[in-house]
What we know:
By secondary structure, the chain is an alpha/beta fold. It contains four helices and seven strands, in the order βαββββαβαβα. The chain has helices spanning 20-30, 73-83, 97-105, 116-123; strands spanning 7-11, 34-38, 44-45, 48-49, 63-66, 87-90, 109-111. A five-stranded parallel beta sheet has the order 2-1-5-6-7, sandwiched between helices. A two-stranded antiparallel ribbon has the order 3-4. Helix 1 (20-30) runs parallel beside helix 4 (116-123) and helix 2 runs parallel beside helix 3. It is globular, with a radius of gyration of 13 Å.
Amino acid sequence: MLREARVIAVVGLSTDPAKPSYEIPRQMQKAGYRVIPVHPTAREILGEPSYRTLGDIADAIDVVNVFRPADEVPGVVRDAIACGAWGIWVQRGIASAQAVALARGAGLAYVEDSCIGVERQRLGVSAPAA
């Protein structure tokens, strides 16, 4: 997933630089990925326009990175399926059997309970060139 993705929408990207839900997407952006923030009230985060929902994003999304509680993940997966994303990455400490079933049933790549930033660094991966 990390080797093929170029555009990552981050549901729950924080406006607080002290939080992992800000720092990890910032690291992904620095590694060459286009990060699209999804936040209910922010207008811009990390220099990118922020969107209230995945459905509000007009651009193609490769992977949806989720920084939301487990009970919200199935809804995010449904939205990701609807917007045409091909992968879901759910951050460390978050797991949902229902979300796994939805994603796999739709043919999406799915990773949960794992930090996308840690795995990117461990594998030494950067976004593919456009």
